[in-house]
Structure formats: C-alpha cells, structure tokens
C-alpha cells in the first residue's frame, strides 16, 4: 500500500471511530508509578482473540461430531468447554482444571473460583469500538464478558501463583478486528513508513491511565497503594495476516511497536511476550525456521531476519489448535471457541513472562 493511500485509509478509520471514543486521558494523566512494593500490573493487548472467546459452559456435542446433523453443535458441558475439561481433568494433563472449581469433588455443578489476589480491568472491546463498558473484578472465567474468557484467565493463574506475596492487576486492552498496521500503528511506524498513529494504540495507554491514575477508586481495597507495570502480553495479527498490504510490513511494525510501548511506559526493558497468530486453519505445526508459516507468524516468531529485541519471548500457538469436530464451534478465527486453546495461550504467555522476570 502506498503511504498516501494508507494515510487516507487511517484518516477514514479515525473519522469513523471518533464518535465511539472514550475521553482521552493523556494530557491530564499522572506519570506512571514504579513502586516495587505496589500492585503488579500486566497489560494484555490485542484484537478479538485477546478479547477471548473460550467457552465456559457450552462445548461440542459428541453426537454432532459423529455426523448427526439433526442435533445441536453445542451442548452444556460439551467437548472442550471449561466445564468439560474440569469434569474430565485426567484427559487434559497440561493443567489441573479441576482446581479452578470451588468444589472439585462436584465438577458438574460446582461454582468457579475467583481470585481476589488477581484482578482484571477491561473496557469491553468485543464490538471493535472504543469506549466500551468497564468490566472489572476478581479474576474468574466469567469476569471478562460474563460468558466467555480470554488468555487473561490462564495468564492470571500462573502469574498469581508466581506473585504469592503480591497483588496482581491485569489490564486488558483488546478490541475485535483491529490491525497492527493501522489501528495499533505506533509513532515509530509512522516515522519509518508513514501513516498516522492509530486510535487503538493510543487507547492502550489512555485506558491504562484511566484505571491506574485512580487505582484506589477503581479498586477500593487498594486505596493508598502504588503500582508497578511489570510486563506486556500481545495476541493479535489475524487482520494483518489476511491483508496483502499489511502482512509483509508486520516484521518491521512489530519491533517498532515494542519499542514504542516500552518508551510510553518508561521502561526500555519491559518484559514483552507474544502469542503468534496460529488459529484459523493456519496450517500444520512446524519447527523453526517455520518455512510454511504465514508472514505474520514468521514475524511474531522472529523468523524473518529482523533482530529480536531483548527481553522478548514468543510462543507458536499452532500446537493449541483444536479441530472443529472436537471443539465447541467451527469459528476458526476464534480458535473454534475452544476453552483449552484460550487457556493454554494465556498459560504459555505467563510461562514466558515468568522466564523473563527471572532473568
């Protein structure tokens, strides 16, 4: 895409979204806190798969999977919803899913645990628009949307266990259908390749300020406490992956984005973890150098010749793909709504984050 064409495209996007935008906080925002004894803050950002569509109670119907088309695809407690995974915990050795229940001895009926030591704050971005309703509270599978969960759920389990003596806040800044090349376009991308700074890039920091500048109001139990921004997690890329214009640029846009995020948060070494865009029938799992992977996946896995910044780790998410016949749905670009896929993405992001924190 020519630079002038991109400028027009982004200007159109900005104009179309202006009516939905939340108030911009930057001009009046406080400086970022950096209290080592404060709440540990993680920013989770991206598009719809960071929004999250992991099914909590509804899963795939085994009868439908047998080819019976006169039965519903999804049923309560069906395959690869979180409930089924807790009931059949032995079939999912990668995590103790029964431990997520209030009463593991009654997995079919037990309520889900929430964690008061790990909290979530999110302006609902499932519609792809700015200015959504605030969702916040103790982390649980229903905290984010009331029905589904995203990578924050698995991420919060690992990080919460890691910070045994600290409190954790996850700020989710995620919106459906948004591209790095336009919507999340950062200042360095503009400097190097033209265009305009994207409104969703700005919103990452505006929304973070919105909660952190008044932390004691948003979470009264933390009144008087400081905070420390500890890490950033990124799961995004589908819109870039399917764009002939945006996909080749991702390898250059991603390191610019990382550098700008770190500059904005005032930490050039801020730990940064990335979950690749391996959903939606991307293809079979490969070993490096990922010859058969898409341009965006290669960029996310640093297989394009562009140098990987320090304190950055990526995960190949293709191993987390669940076949449609064994999943709650056939919506490939949303991981077929598999609770296992979303949980493992979050868990793996957290595992990589812990590795960086311990370096």
Automatic annotation (TrEMBL):
Q: Does the keyword Lipid metabolism apply?
A: no
Q: Where does the signal sequence lie? A: 1-27
Name one matching Pfam family.
SASA
Q: Which PROSITE patterns match?
A: TAT (PS51318)
Keyword annotations: Hydrolase, Signal
| Record's keyword annotation contains Signal | yes
Q: Record's InterPro entries?
A: Carb_Esterase_6, SASA, SGNH_hydro_sf, TAT_signal
Sialate O-acetylesterase domain sequence ranges: 148-353
Name the chain's protein: Sialate O-acetylesterase domain-containing protein
Give the species this sequence originates from: Haloferula helveola
């Amino acid at each position: 895409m020519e630079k002038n064409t991109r400028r027009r495209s982004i200007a159109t996007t900005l104009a179309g979204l202006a009516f939905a935008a939340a108030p911009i906080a930057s001009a009046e925002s406080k400086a970022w806190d950096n209290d080592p004894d404060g709440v540990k803050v993680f920013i989770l950002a991206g598009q719809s798969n960071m929004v999250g569509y992991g099914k909590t109670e509804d899963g795939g119907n085994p009868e439908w999977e047998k080819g019976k088309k006169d039965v519903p695809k999804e049923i309560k407690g069906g395959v690869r919803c979180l409930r089924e995974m807790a009931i059949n915990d032995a079939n999912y050795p990668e995590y103790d899913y029964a431990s997520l229940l209030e009463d593991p001895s009654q997995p079919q009926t037990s309520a889900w645990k929430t964690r008061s030591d790990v909290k979530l704050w999110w302006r609902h971005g499932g519609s792809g628009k700015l200015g959504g309703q605030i969702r916040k509270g103790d982390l649980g599978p229903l905290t984010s949307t009331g029905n589904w969960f995203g990578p924050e759920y698995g991420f919060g389990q690992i990080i919460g266990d890691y910070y045994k003596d600290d409190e954790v806040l996850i700020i989710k800044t995620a919106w459906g259908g948004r591209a790095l090349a336009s919507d999340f376009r950062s200042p360095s991308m503009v400097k190097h390749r033209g265009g305009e700074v994207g409104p969703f890039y700005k919103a990452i920091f505006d929304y973070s300020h919105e909660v952190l500048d008044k932390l004691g109001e948003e979470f009264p139990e933390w009144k008087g406490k400081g905070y420390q921004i500890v890490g950033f997690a990124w799961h995004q890329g589908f819109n870039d992956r399917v764009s002939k214009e945006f996909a080749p640029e991702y390898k250059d846009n991603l390191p610019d984005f990382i550098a700008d995020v770190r500059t904005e948060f005032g930490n050039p070494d801020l730990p940064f973890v990335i979950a690749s865009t391996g959903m939606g029938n991307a293809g079979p799992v490969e070993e490096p150098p990922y010859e058969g992977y898409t341009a965006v996946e290669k960029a996310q896995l640093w297989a394009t010749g562009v140098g990987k910044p320090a304190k950055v780790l990526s995960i190949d998410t293709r191993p987390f793909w669940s076949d449609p016949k064994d999943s709650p749905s056939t919506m490939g670009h949303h991981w077929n709504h598999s609770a296992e896929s979303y949980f493992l993405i979050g868990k793996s992001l957290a595992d990589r984050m812990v590795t960086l924190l311990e370096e």
